[in-house]
Design a protein that fits this description.
Blueprint lengths: L1 H19 L7 H18 L9 H15 L2 H20 L10 H37 L4 H32 L9 H37 L4 H62 L1
Helix pairs in contact: 2-8, 3-5, 4-5, 6-7, 7-8
Length: about 290
């Protein structure tokens, strides 16, 4: 009976660890997810723009972008806003409503700032309209659109990682350890789990931000609904595949570490249980 119990205990522990760390069984869903993941990574890293605009479209794009970026009206409106804001800052002191002569100087300068802001925003809307018209000449499936979307994703991706790093920094500052009696490896596992959680939250937040910015880019390129939906699916597949690659790599590394620790602890316990009968047997022999 004791030998059967000893045989069951290692088997039970191994079965528990194996059930927790078991891989998903191959099936249609797994194959579909794998195909989607590979397609997303290909679209993000290797796929080329499927559409090449004509020479006339590229020349028109460059002309419109130059007119939007170097607009004299926009620069003048921005300059007037800066001057009006500087004039307001000179007299906008603490308690200006009850102090002379500031209570007479601040209101007209505030109105000047409001007028300058309205003129500047009007110039910005005109510039955005020209930029949108320029982007519509080449299309979002062109090299210009694909590269802009990729740059936008990598910017949001870096923002998500920086956000996770800041959360991890504050977790280390305020402490995430356990009690005094807690073993060292348990504290390390808790810290690793917290880091994984921070990066998962940061990258998912970056993915959501990229989704909203992608909708705005599709709107700026004046893409029709069917083409826009298709482009949104391809772009989000690439972004989601990259996030899944990062998070999946973290989870796989953590699971491998947990499995190694569990195996070492299980081996140590089995050695300790096997050493006790030997000591008793030696004592009985000497007696």
């Amino acid at each position: 009976m004791s030998s059967q119990r000893m045989q069951r205990r290692p088997g039970g522990t191994g079965g528990a660890v194996g059930s927790v760390l078991s891989l998903p069984r191959p099936g249609p869903k797994m194959y579909s997810a794998l195909v989607w993941w590979v397609f997303g990574l290909y679209a993000l890293f290797f796929a080329k723009a499927p559409y090449t605009p004509s020479i006339e479209a590229e020349s028109q794009y460059n002309e419109l972008m130059s007119r939007a970026m170097f607009s004299d009206e926009g620069r003048m409106a921005q300059r007037r806003l800066e001057i009006a804001q500087r004039d307001l800052d000179e007299v906008h002191v603490f308690g200006w409503r009850w102090r002379e002569p500031y209570r007479h100087l601040v209101p007209p300068r505030q109105r000047a700032v409001e007028v300058a802001q309205q003129e500047f925003m009007m110039a910005v809307r005109e510039r955005d309209a020209v930029v949108s018209e320029a982007k519509a000449t080449v299309g979002i499936w062109s090299t210009y659109g694909v590269e802009e979307v990729r740059n936008r994703f990598w910017g949001d991706y870096q923002w998500g990682k920086d956000f996770a790093k800041r959360m991890t920094f504050w977790d280390l500052i305020f402490g995430i350890g356990g009690g005094r009696d807690e073993e060292f490896y348990v504290t390390i596992l808790r810290m690793v789990g917290q880091v994984m959680m921070n990066f998962t939250v940061g990258l998912i937040s970056a993915l959501v931000c990229f989704a909203f910015s992608l909708v705005r880019l599709i709107w700026e390129y004046k893409t029709n609904m069917l083409s826009g939906l298709l482009f949104f699916f391809v772009a989000m597949s690439g972004a989601s595949a990259m996030v899944a690659l990062f998070v999946g790599g973290m989870v796989a590394t953590a699971v491998g570490g947990v499995y190694a620790v569990a195996q070492s602890q299980s081996g140590a316990r089995l050695e300790g249980r096997g050493a006790a009968p030997r000591v008793r047997h030696q004592r009985h022999h000497y007696e």
